[in-house]
Amino acid sequence: MSNITSEYPHGGLAIVGGGIAGVTLALGLVARGIPCKIYEQGHSFAEIGAGVAFAPNSIRAMRACDANVYTAFKAVATHNTWESKRADRELGRKGLYFDFLEGFHENDKLLFSLYNDEGANSVHRAHFLDEMVKFLPKDIAAFRKRVERVEESAGQGPVTLHFADGTSTTADAVVGADGVKSHVRQSLLGAEKPESHAGYTYKYAYRGLIPMDKAVAELGEEAAVNSRMYLGPDRHVLTFPIDKGETMNVVAFTTTSQNWPDIHKSTRAATKQDALNDFSGWGPTVTHILSLLNEDVDIWAIFDMKDHPAPTYAKGKVAIIGDAAHATSPHHGSGAGFAIEDSAVLAELLADPAAKRPSGLRVAFQAYDQCRRQRSQWLVASSRRTGELYEWQAQGVGYDIEKIGAEVHERFEKIWQGDIKQMIANAQAAFQRLLPYSEL
Ligand SMILES: Cc1cc2nc3c(=O)[nH]c(=O)nc-3n(C[C@H](O)[C@H](O)[C@H](O)COP(=O)(O)OP(=O)(O)OC[C@H]3O[C@@H](n4cnc5c(N)ncnc54)[C@H](O)[C@@H]3O)c2cc1C
After folding, report:
1. Which numeric CATH code is attached to 200-304?
2. Which residues contact 131 (CB under 8 A, 6 or more apart)?
3. What InterPro entries is this protein classified in (predicted)?
4. Which residues does ligand 1 sit against, CB inside 6 Å?
5. The ligand 1 atom nearest the CA atom of 145
């Protein structure tokens, strides 16, 4: 463990998983002098080659978590390329988050647009992670360490992590940041319980990256360099620029009645022709976008925890954050952003001197659970509903564009207005309220 102090008899916290949740938490803890180690199943820190968008609430959470998270983000953040679509504080102008267009019959008809204080802010996942990792101490991570289960001993004893390679280690506490198929969640809630497993939403997505030169030449500048979403029956497609405008990110969602073939895997191989077949009958713009994908593409299954939300995010000295706690469909583009909110709240709670004792650690985890569960589980449910709105499936709304626009707007506003300072203050107040009972 880095930065060992006598307050942590078992060396500090173990973070399971080195994705956006695990790495932002590690940065938040390191910044506050809290010893921690990351156990990652991969052979290095690695993210997939795809885009991820961040909204104003997530950007505020980056700053609250650790200035280095924000610095890393700024190094790679990409905005809408057109000046008129960017936020400008001096001019008091909001920035475009997404233009929503008809993708099916009335090709390219603008339906509605969403604006916020930051506009569109997207990164290439792998590049963002690389930038963040530069700020971590060199010895903070152990790779090729796949956690199978964690086990808490009674009283002041440590938490034991058991790895797939047959080895084990101990820590003062464990935070599971091990994603949608979290093993820490299973240890926490019971592997046999439905809430330990995210379910298939009967939607999947093709993802692709198109060189921007090619996208501009084929689609025209406005469509290629700004964030857009094309809506239609049972499907939708979104595009936005990443890599400082060098690349156009494409995600094409399809609703299906078929089961996902292997529930243990998140992706399966497919072809561009599969995507074109899924979108047959769609307008020329969507067809054109899909025709720019590589011949071989991956399909991503969309899982979430809406049907069986976790009844708690913490028990004893084990907690879960990010997708491990609240795996969500991506229709609000906020799963990673909420993971950073988790990290900011948890890092601040753990910085309290009283949280450095085993009893205080448990209370910090309890306070984290109390303050994060409602908002993040609302996100999971709202994201499902929003996916239905985009695809004209939502009960009581269907293809009423005015209603779709109004409801989508209201839901995004609730996300964007999330006030991380208030969330932290609420969590700290809960910690102080609960603390006296921990000493009994
Ligand atoms: C198509 C799509 C588009 C999306 N777009 C957006 C977006 O625009 N904006 C947004 O905010 N969110 C978006 N999301 C959601 C976002 O990707 C996730 O919420 C986010 O990546 C979760 O981060 P995480 O660190 O919790 O989990 P992960 O990114 O899954 O990281 C988990 C890490 O843990 C490791 N691990 C797993 N199991 C173990 C184990 N047993 N032992 C040790 N290590 C383990 C993994 O190797 C990995 O490194 C999207 C999701 C999808 C599917």
Report:
1. 3.30.9.30
2. 71, 72, 73, 75, 76
3. FAD-bd, FAD/NAD-bd_sf, FAD_monoxygenase
4. 16-22, 39-42, 52-53, 146-147, 177-180, 183, 205, 207, 251, 300, 322-324, 330, 333-337, 339
5. 43
CB contact set of 24 (below 8 Å; sequence gap of 6+) = 62, 65, 66, 69, 132, 339, 340, 343, 344
The third-level CATH classification (topology) of the domain covering 13-78+122-197+307-438 is FAD/NAD(P)-binding domain (3.50.50)
In angstroms, what is the span from residue 253 Cα to ligand 1's centroid? 18
List average pLDDT for each run of 10 residues in the chain, which is 440 residues long: 63 97 98 98 87 94 98 93 82 92 93 93 93 97 98 88 98 97 98 97 96 97 95 97 93 97 92 98 97 96 98 97 98 97 98 93 97 98 98 96 98 97 98 84
Specify the 3-state DSSP secondary structure of 308. coil
Cα 20 to middle of ligand 1, angstroms: 7
In degrees rounded to 5, what are phi and psi of residue 173? -160, 160
Determine the Cα–Cα distance for residues 346 and 372; give it in Å rounded to an integer: 10
**What element of type H or E holds 323?**
helix 323-326
Atom of ligand 1 minimally distant from the CA of 23: 25
Q: Report which of 248, 121, 261, 247 is spatially closest to residue 204, judged by C-alpha positions.
A: 261
Q: How far is the CA of 179 from the centre of ligand 1 (A)?
A: 5
The C-alpha atoms of residue 366 and residue 377 are separated, in whole angstroms, by 16
Q: How many CA atoms lie within 13 A of 57 on its CB side?
A: 25
AA identity, residue 94: K
Three-state DSSP at 192 gives coil
**What ligand 1 atom has the least distance to the C-alpha of 42?**
47
- What's the CA gap between 282 and 341, in Å, rounded? 38
Rg of the chain over CA atoms, in angstroms?
A: 22
Q: Which residue in 404, 189, 202, 439 sits closest to 312, CA to CA?
A: 189
User: Structure tokens of 307?
Assistant: 């049907």
Map tokens 């400082």 to a residue: 244
Q: For position 371, what pLDDT does the model report?
A: 97
| List of E strands, 177-255 | 199-211, 228-232, 235-242, 247-255
Domain spans, the chain: 13-78+122-197+307-438, 200-304
The DSSP 8-state label assigned to residue 178 in this structure reads -
Q: How far is the CA of 75 from the centre of ligand 1 (A)?
A: 21
Task: Check if the beta carbon of residue 212 is closer than 8 Å to that of residue 318.
Answer: no
10 Å Cβ neighbour count for 269?
Answer: 9
How many residues in total does the chain contain?
440
Residue nearest to atom 38 of ligand 1 (CA): 178
